Automatic annotation (TrEMBL):
One of its GO terms (molecular function) is RNA binding. One of its GO terms (biological process) is enzyme-directed rRNA pseudouridine synthesis. CDD domains: PseudoU_synth_RsuA_like (cd02870), S4 (cd00165). Its EC number is 5.4.99.-. Pfam families: PseudoU_synth_2, S4. This is Pseudouridine synthase. Gene3D superfamilies: Alpha-L RNA-binding motif, Pseudouridine synthase I, catalytic domain, N-terminal subdomain, RNA-binding S4 domain. One of its GO terms (cellular component) is cytosol. Residues 2-59 form the RNA-binding S4 domain. The lineage of its organism: Bacteria, Bacillati, Bacillota, Bacilli, Lactobacillales. Belongs to the pseudouridine synthase RsuA family. It comes from Levilactobacillus suantsaii. The keyword RNA-binding applies. InterPro entries: PsdUridine_s_RsuA/RluB/E/F_cat, PsdUridine_synth_cat_dom_sf, PsdUridine_synth_RsuA/RluA, PsdUridine_synth_RsuA/RluB/E/F, PsdUridine_synth_RsuA/RluB_CS, RsuA_PseudoU_synthase, S4_RNA-bd, S4_RNA-bd_sf. Keywords: Isomerase, RNA-binding.
Length: 241
């Protein structure tokens, strides 16, 4: 017997956190009855429906996308805006983004139907590093960079220490290019951290996720992960040794 949300995640319905939301909001039926309890366990013979559609075990898919600005990091958007899933062609399985990038943020985004891997990649426990490059207003001081490396608190939220450095500065325009490496993935985190030390973000890009980079891709392009890349991701998140 397995927890219902875990079964839904493995079936590619959604990440485990998203599956929990589906359960609590009444979208899931087990053997004809709506289930809203997160502790529910199911077996191989139970019939599970998502919005009255039976789940099936899909072939795992692992994609790397160079997300352009102006695209929503979700599988579906109620406002009918373009989503990252719309950019993936010739993939019949239901895939969804691992974490998110803001609408106006570009860069590396993973998409999959492997709920267990997605859950681990987004969990701060596994400390998978993410490298961002930002253009900021102003030229950051050494003290500001030191604050980021020590960790900061913004509106009662504490952000873990980040690796930070100024890559270049334009004294005439009073802007700078800053690199920030974090292992958390909280909402608007990079923007909030840089603004908290006095340097608002004008433009933001995620250049690296763990060991993965955007090499060979243009904005809007995607590719399947290589077997050795998938193996390393699973090793980083404790799914394999």
């Amino acid at each position: 017997m397995e927890r219902l949300q875990k079964v839904l995640a493995h079936a590619g319905v959604a990440s485990r956190r998203q599956a929990e939301k589906l359960i609590m909001s009444g979208h899931i039926k087990v053997n004809g009855a709506v289930v809203t309890e997160l502790g529910t366990k199911v077996g191989v013979h139970d019939k599970i429906l998502v919005d009255n559609v039976p789940i099936t075990t899909e072939t795992p898919v692992y994609m790397l996308l160079y997300k352009p600005r102006g695209v929503i990091s979700t599988a579906h958007d109620e406002k009918k805006r373009r989503t990252v899933v719309d950019l993936i062609e010739d993939v019949p399985q239901r895939i969804y983004p691992v974490g998110r990038l803001d609408y106006d943020t570009s860069g590396l985004l993973l998409l999959t139907n492997d709920g267990e891997l997605a859950n681990r990649l987004t969990h701060p426990r596994y400390e998978v590093e993410k490298v961002y490059v930002a253009r900021v207003t102003g030229i950051p001081s050494n003290d500001a960079m030191r604050q980021l490396r020590q960790g900061i608190t913004v509106d009662d939220d504490h952000y873990a220490p980040a690796k930070s450095k100024v890559l270049s500065a334009d004294k005439k325009k009073q802007t700078a290019i800053v690199q920030l490496t974090i292992h958390e993935g909280r909402n608007h985190q990079v923007k909030k951290m840089l603004e908290a030390v006095g340097y608002p973000v004008e433009k933001l890009k995620r250049e690296q996720y763990g060991f993965l980079t955007l090499k060979g891709l243009q904005p809007g392009e995607s590719r399947h992960l290589k077997p050795e890349e998938l193996k390393e991701l699973k090793r980083l998140t404790g799914l394999t040794k």
